[in-house]
Amino acid sequence: MAATHTDSGSPCMVSVEAGSYRVSRPQSARDVIDLIGKHDIVIVDLKFTDLPGQWQHFSITLPEVHEELFDAGIGFDGSSIRGFQEIHESDMLLRPDPATAFVDPICETPTLSLICDVVDPVLHQPYSRDPRYVAKKAETYLRQTGIATTCYFGPELEFFIFDSIRFGQDPHSGYYFVESAEGEWNTGRDEGAYGGGNLGYKQRYKEGYFPVPPHDTLQEIRSEIVLTLQQAGVRVEVHHHEVATAGQNEIDMRFSTLTRMADNVMIYKYVCKNVARRHGKVATFMPKPLFADNASGMHCHQSLWNDERNLFYDANGWALTSDLCRWYIGGLLHHAPALMAFCAPTTNSYKRLVPGYEAPVNLAMSQRNRSAAARIPMYSDSPNARRVEFRCPDPSANAYLAFAAMLMAGLDGIENRIDPGDPLDRNIYDLPPEEASGIRQVPGSLEAALDALETDYAFLRKGDVFTDDVIQTWIDYKRRHEIEPIRLRPHPWEFYLYFDV
């Protein structure tokens, strides 16, 4: 996880070092105002994240952009944002973070985007339910523990690009319909209506990993996404087609610090969706949109550093890892059932977390083995490359909350020296039943994960990183808006199973 990088093409003004990764970004309101003039900006877009994890925004004109904006903030209606305020306490403030400024590569009108923090105007304090504030508090708490100065995250977000998607449900019908020219189900389709005959190059189920064009029809779109991300100041390492048929993809960003990486995840989703739309296609980060093929995960590489020293490395340790690294893994595995409430936070997430689709349902650690929940990548023996890859999260997660929760679980593991158990360097899915039965597994549903969070959240409360209000609001929102509505509605497969009873 070591690199030196200077993004000469990004609109940045001050060089900042973080470990061995160097980025340059505006650091003050004056820097941002100078940037606006340099790029002939005419609109400034203010972006922030709601509790479930989607970007919200509104735009302001140049007369409204001045240095006081970055201290005083600008008002908005918090009662209209999911998971935020009630109607009788709706007034909230957005405070732009100068270090997040980027010339928006999606907008045709010259636009500068700023990621904002949410402020309570009555308390004159950061808003407790602002996901970005939770992430910032986690980084502050890390430094307060004295264990490390920095936590780096490198998530691998997988996603699908479809040609079209239709779905709907009402009292007398319910359906979804996915279409993709790559889908194996289209090998027999008459494609004359699509501009030519059927050329036959379709991705077979579970065989979408790495074939070149013409099987991979999305090479150029992914390249465009990568170049657009770089315009937004996000460094990218690699892109490729993923395992599933019908357009599953992965684009890997360079690691960064916790909050900054969560910012980059939001930019990543924004760019992927909008570039796909330019091409008349649709990108989705829904974990399991297709039956009988692999789902989309968000494997999270993470490590702790003291300035320039990687604390997860030990030349004499198992898989070149330190005791501190293994205790961190112990914390992730011990608290995994509760973590899933933030890391796999949708009912659809648990259609991914089943055996047989490379999904890490078993709470064990390993080196190289992708069937384990916690893996030590072995591509390099460099001290800087030593890290843990936690494979349970998926891209439906709110990155600010998920990253913060993982860090807190790992720190709890270090503070309590939690033993992760013996490594399992075999295919866990092929273990004899008597061995497999002794391995803990992730929850089987969102409801079970929320139940686990209700009984195991003290580790999140340390340093007031997650407040009781945030945790309870999250649980209540998920139950009321996701679990209960799905429980009320018939599933199409139930008609197949039960219509003739």
Automatic annotation (TrEMBL):
* Entry keywords, A to Z: ATP-binding, Cytoplasm, Ligase, Magnesium, Metal-binding, Nucleotide-binding, Phosphoprotein
Give the signal peptide, or none.
none
Q: Name the species this protein comes from.
A: Paraburkholderia humisilvae
Q: What is this protein called?
A: Glutamine synthetase
- GS beta-grasp domain location, by residue? 39-123
Against InterPro entries, the record matches this protein to:
Gln_synt_N, Gln_synt_N_sf, Gln_synth/guanido_kin_cat_dom, Gln_synth_cat_dom, Gln_synth_gly_rich_site, Gln_synth_I, Gln_synth_N_conserv_site
Q: What is its main location?
A: cytoplasm
Q: Where does L-glutamate bind?
A: N294, A295, R352, E358, R370, R391
Which residues does the record list as O-AMP-tyrosine (modified residue)?
Y429
Compartment annotation: Cytoplasm
Q: What class of enzyme is it?
A: ligase
Task: Return the SMART domains for the record.
Answer: Gln-synt_C
Q: Is Nucleotide-binding tagged as a keyword? A: yes
Catalyzed reaction equations = L-glutamate + NH4(+) + ATP = L-glutamine + ADP + phosphate + H(+)
UniProt-listed GO biological process terms? glutamine biosynthetic process; nitrogen utilization
Annotated positions binding Mg(2+)? E156, E158, E242, E250, H299, E389
GS catalytic domain mapped to chain residues: 131-501
Q: Name one GO molecular function term.
A: glutamine synthetase activity
